[in-house]
Amino acid sequence: MKILICDDHKIVRDGLRQILQQLHGVSLIAEAGDGNETLILLKKEIFDIVLLDISLPDRSGLEVLQSVKAKWPSTNVLMLSMHPQEQYAIRAIKLGASGYLTKDTASEELLIAVKRVSEGGKYISQSLAENLAIHLDKDKHQHKHDVLSVREFDIMIRLANGKSLQEIGNELFISNKTVSTYRSRIMGKMALNKNTELTRYCMESSLI
Question: Do 160 and 199 meet the contact criterion of CB atoms below 8 Å apart?
C-alpha cells in the first residue's frame, strides 16, 4: 500500500506518518505540504490512498480532491479536517472522497478508516454519521451555498473569514480582478450584497 499525506503542517504529517507506520503492508509513505505538490507527486507515483487536509495554503482541499478524482479516479482520498461540520463532509463525499475524519480522531480510528478505504469501502466517524443523519432529516432543502462551485465555495470561506481580495489573490495565485469576479458571482448566486452578510450566513451555517 502506498500512502500520500497532504498537510501544510510538518508536525501533523510527522504524527500521521508515525500512526500509519503501524499498518501492515505499507510500502511507501510520501508527504506533500500543499495542493500543487500533491498533484505533482501523483503524476510521478501511483498512490492507493491520499490523506488530504481540507485547509491548504494554495488551494482548497476540496478543489484538490476534485482534481485527484478527475485525473486518478482509482486513488482513494480520505479527507482530514479541523471542521466537524456536516456541510464539509457532505461536499467532500459528493466530490468523491472515500472518507472524512476530523483531526482530533484517535489513532485507532484513523487506522480503521485507512484499512477500510484501502479495501474499497467508505468511512466516516460514528458521531459524524449520526450528525449527518440528523442534518439530512431536518434540512432536506438545498442550502444557498450548495449552488457554488468548489472554487467559489473556497473563496466564500476566505471572504467570510475577513480576508481581502489581495490576500485571497496572493494565496490562490490569481489576480484581484479575478477574485472580485468570483465574489460578484458568489453574491449573485446567494442573493447577498455585503461581506458582512456573507460572514453572518457562514457563521449561521456553521461553515466558519
Answer: yes
CATH number at residue 108: 3.40.50.2300
**Whether residue 87 is found in the same domain as residue 33:** yes
Helices (H), 119-172: 126-138, 150-160, 165-172
165 touches 176 (CB < 8 A): yes
Q: Which residue has the cell 485525473?
A: 71
pTM over 0.70: yes
Residue whose grid cell is 474499497:
120
Q: What is the CATH number of the domain that holds 154?
A: 1.10.10.10
Residues 144-158: tens digit of each pLDDT: 898 899 899 999 999
183 has a pLDDT exceeding 90? yes
Which residue range is the domain that position 154 belongs to?
A: 144-204
Residue 138 is predicted with a pLDDT of 56
